[in-house]
Structures are given as C-alpha cells and as structure tokens.
Amino acid sequence: MTPENRKERANGIGFAIGAYILWGMLPVYWKLLQHVPALEILAHRIIWSFIFLLILLIVTGKLRSFLSEAREISKQPRKMASIFVAAIILNINWLIYIWAVNENHIVQTSLGYYINPLVSVLLGIAFLHERLSLWQLMAFFLAVVGVLCLTFQYGAFPWVALSLAITFGVYGLFKKVVNVGAITGLTLETMITCVFALVYLVYVNNAGNGAFQFSMSTTTLMLMGAGAVTATPLLLFAAGAKRLPLYIIGFIQYLSPTMALLLGVFVYHEPFTSGHFMSFGIIWTGLIIFSLSRTAFMVVMEEAVLKKIHANRLSS
What we know:
Helix content is 83%, strand content 0%. The protein is mainly alpha-helical.
C-alpha cells in the first residue's frame, strides 16, 4: 500500500468513525426535545434537512449538477417512484426512532441497529438473489435466537428494534436499486416529503400547539439544528465509504448502537438485566461471526468446512 493510499484509508476511517459517533450521540439530541411530539420533531427534521442540504449544494457549487441529475431522474417514472417510496420508509424509520428515544426505548433502538446488517443480508437474498454464506447463516440464526430470548423472557415482542431494522434495511435496498448519490438522494427524499411536513406544521401552529416560535428560543434553535445533525453524519459516512473497503465499514458500524446502548443504560437508566445481557450476548456473537465472514480467513475456513461436509457425504 502506497503512502497516499494509507493516508486515504486513514482519512476514510476518520470520516466513518465521525459519522458513527454522531449517529451514536443522536439520542442525546432528541432527548433535549422530549417535550415536543415526535411527529412535530420529524416534520422539522425533514424541512431543515432539506434547507441544510440545499445550502450545502449552493456553497459547494454543486446545485447545478444536482438540478441536472434531478431532471434526468424525473424523466424515469420507476426511479422517481422508488425514491418516493424510499423517502416514506426513511421518514417512518426516523419517526419510530425519535418516538422510541423519547419514550425510553434507547436500548431497543440499539438492538435494532445491531441486527440491521443481518436484515439487510436477508433482503439481499430475497430481492437481489444474493447468496448467504455458511457464517452469515450462522450469524442470522444466532440473531433470531437472541430476539426470541428477549421475547420469551419479557413477554413482549421487541417491535421497536425490528421495525427500525426492517425499515432501514428496506430503505437501503431501495437506495441500492435506485443507485443515486448520497446527497442527491437525501435532498430529493426530503424535498418530496417537505410539502407534507409543511402542511402538518401549519396545521399545528394554527391550532396553537406548535413548539416552533419565531424567536431565538432553545427549542426553536434545536428544531432548526435537526437538519444539520441529520445530514452531517450522512456526508461523513459517504466520504468514508468512498475510501474504505466494505469489511472495515462493517466493523465500524457497530460503534453507533454500542454508544446508544451505553447512553440508554448508564445515562438514561433504562433497564438492562442479566436476561438482556444474555440475549444481546447471543446477538453480539452472531455479529462477530457476520463481520469476520467478510474476511479472507473466514472465506478459506468456509471452503474447508464445505469440502469436509461434501467428503463426508461421498464417504457415506
């Protein structure tokens, strides 16, 4: 590896870690807006994300290329329909996450993003005809066991975790199929849903229930800041993903749910019993296997195991 490549990889790791640290800290931000209804926070998040991205495109001189790309996409009904559906799914994911954080379910949100990579693999098999390796199959089985353990121990299905994992997994699937750049995609998605968000906020403010005031109050500034805290980690992630192989991103991505878990347990004092630890431990074991499955060593190991199984079948 050349010194230039090493520098690029180091920069990529820095960008990716920065993105996942910011995502891991998001519960703190939404907790500070706990007095605002989740749907109202979502509406502001959509609008201010769109405004932030628009300003970014203008400042970086990429507005013209964005408009050109948007015009091309608008001529492709299937692509536009996919972006519209992706926008709706992303907003559902955002709404569930904001609601869950402010209703003291941060531990469940961390579980959702732990199992999200496994859900994405399953969706890839179902819709993109990708193959599941032996180690990935084992990892998925362990994740299912972990979720079932939580369900049986507490008599409640972890719907928050699974809803977050599925919606973000489906969103990722649409993004892969549409194949639009990160900034372009998110700008279009927020632009599409901006109309609905504006209509809702006008209705709320006319009813006298709106949290946003035309003043420099803390709540107003934080609602406006929702755009920056949404778009910044995404931009850092895009910069990191360009410079790093997938397996490194695969390891770094667990930083975010780990931070959320620690915040939920040690800062916001959500329950985390021995039963939780056992279930999470099973899932963590699956994730270690899943992450290692992308390395050359595990590929060689899998080939050796499959050869042995094949040889045993022939001998019998």
